[in-house]
Amino acid sequence: MEAKKAAKLRLGWIVIGILAVLTAVEFWVAIAINSALLYLAVLALAKAALIVQYFMHVNQLWHKEGHE
Amino acid sequence: MSTATTHTSAVVHPEYDRLALNRFGLWLFFFSESLIFLILLLTRFYLFGTSRPEELNQTLGLAITVILLLSSFTAYRAETAIAHDDRPQFLRNLLATILLGTLFLLGVVLVEWPEAPRLGIVPQEGFGIAFFSMTGMHAFHVLSGVLLLLMVYLNGRRGAYSSDSYWGVEASIKYWHFVDVVWVFFYPALYLL
Fold it and tell me: Is the ipTM of this complex over 0.90?
């Protein structure tokens, strides 16, 4: 139980770390590149996918999970 | 025989089916909400293309984005904690989420909105139409999210949730993440392009 909780908390750190890096890249892309629409769209999609997959647990919709 | 088996199965797992239905309903709600935000986003691009006023406060935009992302992280930790019956950590992280959400809201309403007209971005014309309607609609959802989380926090303090039953926590935290996902698209559209 504790190991499972620790693993989930560790996953949270990894996801927020990646989100922070992607946000920094987004900011840099906006400054450095003139026509950045495509890059910014890809980065936003990647960030949204991370949140939906790992924070919102979208896979609970097709993998039935009850509360532990 | 088969009827009896089906009936028994339904009686044994009513909560399980209820939870699956609740989740499905919540995602349907997210889908319908997404359409509202998508229309706002498309309107912004239709009216103003890929241009935006240079004067917009980039530092503030980045700061409130980081605050909202951090609040999603603390919300995730709160849900994980209650799923493992760690009530103190659940309450601590939920309170942090509420505070960060309030900070985001104050940043938009008390700093960004009064500052924008001074930079020539007014709600009645030009880019201000998109800026104020997008940030306004989003801020309204942040406000409702903060109120929801506050209700969950007060219930949590009374011991209303456990690892066996925390749908109220799960639903309100999912809603909070949804509000964050919306901002993930609004932030570059308003501040970075």
Answer: yes
